[in-house]
Structure formats: structure tokens, C-alpha cells
Design brief:
The chain has helices at residues 75-87, 138-146, 152-167, and strands at residues 4-8, 14-20, 32-40, 46-51, 62-63, 65-68, 97-103, 107-115, 130-136. The chain is α+β, with helices and mostly antiparallel strands. The protein has one domain: Nucleoside Triphosphate Pyrophosphohydrolase, CATH 3.90.79.10.
């Protein structure tokens, strides 16, 4: 099924248009919205999922839960949906906390945080998207980055995310 995204200008004002996934011109000055969710358990470990080898971008590397906001959907609703689709975790109302937005070349990345304890065997992987999951410590997360086994977009945002988690008292 085709995925459509709402388009925004560089100030995140809606343009009143949509684009089909894969149809954005990176030189257009238009943006869409992506959500990223940091799921952390009470031991301070972060949930990472392994991208499917079928993925065209960043196959077989670890990542945080993330995905694009669909046309007509708000960021928070998209974060709840992506978390459920990719991990099976059902966030309760208000459980996801907005952390920050990172503006990149074609997208606004809205980052959320959730504290959630679950045995790894309870994580439900999304077919075609994820093939494994694990809880990692901050040192293990940094090792995945150093070994180039973390998806580049996540690695690129790492310091901003963890600095914000520290500022907010989550670490």
C-alpha cells in the first residue's frame, strides 16, 4: 500500500500538499515529519531493533523505533503507531514524552521517550521491518555505533538524544 506524507516548508508550516513515499525531491526545500522513539527500561537500557535484510536503506543494522508521519496524522499519534507496529508496545495516553525536534535536509525528526519494562521475548517484530530486538546499555549502544552496526541516522543523532535524556533526568 502506498504511503503518503504531508509536506511542510522550512519553518514547518503546512504546504497543503502530500507526496508519495520516495517521491520527495531533496533539493525542493520541502520537508516531511518523522518520529523516533527512545524506549528505555528501568535498568537504563535502550531497546534496539535490527532492521530487516530486505530493507533498501540500512539493512541488517540496529536502530531505534522510527517512521514517517502519514498524511493527516499528527506526530504523537504516529509515534504511538510506530512503537506498536515495530515492537508491539502499546503506549498508554500521555506515556510517550516529546523530547525534541531535529531538523534535517528533508525532514523534521520528532523524538519521543517512553519508559517501558518488558522481557525481550515480549517484543513483537514487524515483518519486513525488523528481525531482532535487544536491550542495550549506553556503552553497548556506543559500541554499535563505533562498529558501524547502528543505522547512520540514529548514530548521527546519538549525542543530541542522550544529552537531552540527561537534561530531562532520564539517565
Amino acid at each position: 500500500m502506498a504511503e503518503y506524507w504531508d509536506l511542510y516548508d522550512e519553518e514547518r508550516n503546512p504546504l497543503g500538499r502530500t507526496v508519495i513515499r520516495g517521491g520527495m525531491d531533496p533539493m525542493s526545500g520541502e520537508y516531511h515529519v518523522v518520529v523516533m522513539i527512545v524506549t528505555m527500561n528501568s535498568h537504563g537500557q535502550v531497546l534496539c531493533t535490527l532492521r530487516s535484510p530486505e530493507k533498501s536503506n540500512y539493512p541488517n543494522v540496529w536502530e531505534l523505533t522510527a517512521g514517517s508521519v502519514l498524511a493527516g496524522e499528527d506526530s504523537y499519534t504516529a509515534a504511538v503507531r510506530e512503537l506498536r507496529e515495530e515492537t508491539g508496545i502499546k503506549a498508554k495516553d500521555g506515556e510517550l514524552r516529546y523530547m525534541m525536534t531535529v531538523k534535517e535536509s528533508t525532514a523534521f525528526i520528532d523524538c519521543y521517550f517512553i519508559r517501558h519494562d518488558a522481557d525481550i521475548s515480549e517484543i513483537i517484530l514487524q515483518e519486513g521491518e525488523t528481525v531482532d530486538a535487544k536491550w542495550v546499555t549506553r556503552q553497548e549502544f556506543e559500541n554499535l555505533i563505533a562498529q558501524k552496526r547502528m543505522a547512520f541516522p540514529v548514530a548521527r543523532r546519538y549525542h543530541q538524544l542522550f544529552d537531552k535524556l540527561m537534561q530531562e533526568g532520564f539517565l
